[in-house]
Amino acid sequence: MSELLRQGETLTQVNDGIELIQNPAGLAFGTDALLLAAFLRAAPHAAAAEFGSGSGIVSMLLARRNKLKHIDALEVQPYYADLTRRNILHNGLTDQIEAVCRDVREPSREYDVIFTNPPYMKTESGRRNEDDGKFAARHEVNGDIDDFCRAAAKSLKYGGDFYAVYRPDRAVDLLTAMRRAAIEPKRLCFVHPDESHKPCLLLVSAKRGGKAGCEVMRPLFLTREDGSPTPDAARIYETGNWVE
User: Fold this and answer.
1) pLDDT tens-digit readout, 19-32
2) Interior CA angle at 33 toward 42 and 3, to 5°?
């Protein structure tokens, strides 16, 4: 294992028995990745792509659960593309996932499913992170949400599914970008820390060439008043499947 770890990196046990190589200075495994993987409906014969793989955790969760047949994990930053590659190798998922260092705006092949946890902050917003990779992963340095949706439309088969997790305060940007790219939103769920707080995440599934009409699902609350997971959240954490 030592040959796969780089200086400053750590190895963390996460869900589904996955051992995740992470860089404390970069992006850490979080609830957004876990929920996005659960939100995807199983398509065991589908060829899929992740737009912006980071550590590769979302692709690995989906592969471990056999929700997709094959995944191309696309990442524009060489360090994170290599981190994804090493995580895939360490977890024995090379038959199901391929790490690809490429800008998602450069179309390649067609996919049945595309999913993404894209950068959600405009380049001029927020504090400038000292780590360039972390800044680029959170800010629209390598493409904004319109770029991601247009790229998805070019690479998705007609009728293919697109999934995204995003910030609620940019919900209008995400939904209009999808529609402009002819990817029609079909399911939408707001995620709240608890019943007393505003939503912290937005999950959307969409279909390329789909008809107008979107189901607004019941909200997902993550914790109860005592800080313990709600029954819905606990089921998602334990099974990796969404509560409809």
Assistant:
1) 999 988 887 888 99
2) 105
